[in-house]
Every structure is written in C-alpha cells, then in structure tokens.
Amino acid sequence: MRDYLGSRCMFGIPTPSVNTCVQPECDDMRPDGVTNHIARMHVPDLAVRSDEDFERGIDALFGALDNAVDQVMTCGPDHLILGISALAIWGGSRAKSDALKARIAQRANASDRNIGVTLASDAVLEALAAHGVKRRIAIVEPYYPVIQKHLEAFFGEAGFDVVKFNHLQGKQFTGYTKVDARYLIDALRDTDTPDAEAIVQFGANLPMASLADEAERWLGKPVIAVNIANYWHALRHNGIDDRVRGWSKLMSQF
Question: Which InterPro entries does the protein's record reference (predicted)?
Fold first, then answer.
C-alpha cells in the first residue's frame, strides 16, 4: 500500500539547516497526494563578508550532505530533491554535477530502490529548454562573486551565455530570507537586460518563488526561480503532470 498522505509521491529534501525558504515554498506548491520530507544539512549560521567566507560555507555543506541523505531516507521517499542550488553547479561542469548526483544516489541506495534525484543543475537546464530559451540568460543569486566562475562554466558548457550577473552578497546565511518584496522586485529589475532571453534565480534560500509568476508579466520573459524549477522537475519526472497556476509558466504550462 501507498502512504496515506503521500499516495502519489513522497519527496525527500535535504536542505541546509539555515534554510527557511525551501520547505515553505515546496509545501505551497505541493499537489494533493504529494508530501515533502525535509532533512537538515547542519551548518552554522555563518557571517559572510568575502568570497573566502562563502567558500568555507560551501565546504561545510558538502561535508553535511551524507548525514542528511541518511536521515531522510529512513522515511522511505520516492525521489530526492537537493534543496541547495550552489552545490549542484560547484566545479562548473556537467561532470561535477553528475558526480554529485551519483554520490547522493549511492548514499541513498537509489538504484536498489528506484529513486530519482533532482539537482538544480538538471532542473534549470530542463526549464530553459521547456521555455525554448536558446542562448542568453541573466542570473540573480544571494551569493558572493566567487560563484560566478562556477555558474559561467556550467552554463557555458551547456551552450548558454550569461550576459549579466547580480550578486546580492547576503551577509549571513539566514539573512537571505530577511528581505521584503521591494528588495526582491528591485533585484529582478536590476538583473534584467534586453540581451537576456530569461532570468534565472539561483540560491534556494532566496524567496523568489511567489514573485516569479508576476515578474514574468512585468518583464515579458521567463523568470526561472530555482525552487520552482526543482519542484517542477521532480513532479514531472515522477509522472505528476498537474498544471498549477501562480507558480510561473513553468508550473502552469509545461
């Protein structure tokens, strides 16, 4: 028998312990019969004042990943979603991203249990393809400029030019969500450029999901919020084709 509440699918979602965005955004997008089960990757609420501070945080998160996968697998999920986007593109190549996915799958014994794994690297590329975006994108994220070389290399390998970056440089891991709507709107407007066919929002602790749908109407182009892309990818790869309005065209049309 299937789980009573997760009769269609149960998602296991490892996410940083400092992240207060992934869980509520995924719960808001959750269709009937789908449940979300969060595991925490323990990391201190680091102050971030430099590229070096940010890299130390990334190292801590890589070190915390396996324990979080172990934790969430005890509830028997059908599919895993990695609830942090920076790790998915760290290293700047498809090979690095695939190696991370293989690490998670191996830790979860995914081949034995027929469990899929969603990473932002796969989800965003599939979202861009769904929208028919061919080459030029702009990216906004809450990180420090050190992330740029990883994003440029990853998307460059996939055939995309990143024509503009907007590094918001959040000063505390938990500070990414301590913002208001005006801040987020201004960030999207500052990221937009006529050269960009789409705006991609990285950073799973930046609460853009609820604004993406409206922003697509202001800007007249796709706005791919990473938590929407991840959740959409996981739903579609599990045969759940519900079209849901209010979470950008990705969820309502594709």
Answer: Iso_Racemase_Enz_sf, MaiA/AMDase
Q: Does some domain include residue 4?
A: no
**In sequence order, which ranges of the chain are alpha helices (DSSP H)?**
22-29, 51-73, 86-89, 94-107, 110-113, 120-131, 147-157, 181-191, 209-219, 226-236, 248-253
Q: Are residues 24 and 71 in the same domain?
A: yes
Helix (H, G, I), strand (E, B) or coil at 199: strand
Task: Note whether 84 and 147 are same-domain residues.
Answer: no
Torsion of CA 83, 138, 59, 184, to 10 degrees: -60
If we measure between CA atoms, which residue out of 209, 215, 247, 214 comes closest to residue 21? 209
pLDDT tens-digit map of 67-117: 999 999 999 999 999 999 999 999 999 999 999 999 999 999 867 778 999
Same domain, 51 and 90: yes
Half-sphere exposure of 62 (CA within 13 A, CB side): 18
The candidate with the shortest Cα–Cα distance to 19, out of 51, 64, 52, 79, is: 64
Residue appearing with tokens 């853009």: 208
Are both 133 and 204 inside the same structural domain? yes
Per residue in 10-44, pLDDT tens? 999 999 999 999 999 999 999 999 999 999 999 99
- Tell me, yes or no, whether 214 and 239 share the same domain: no
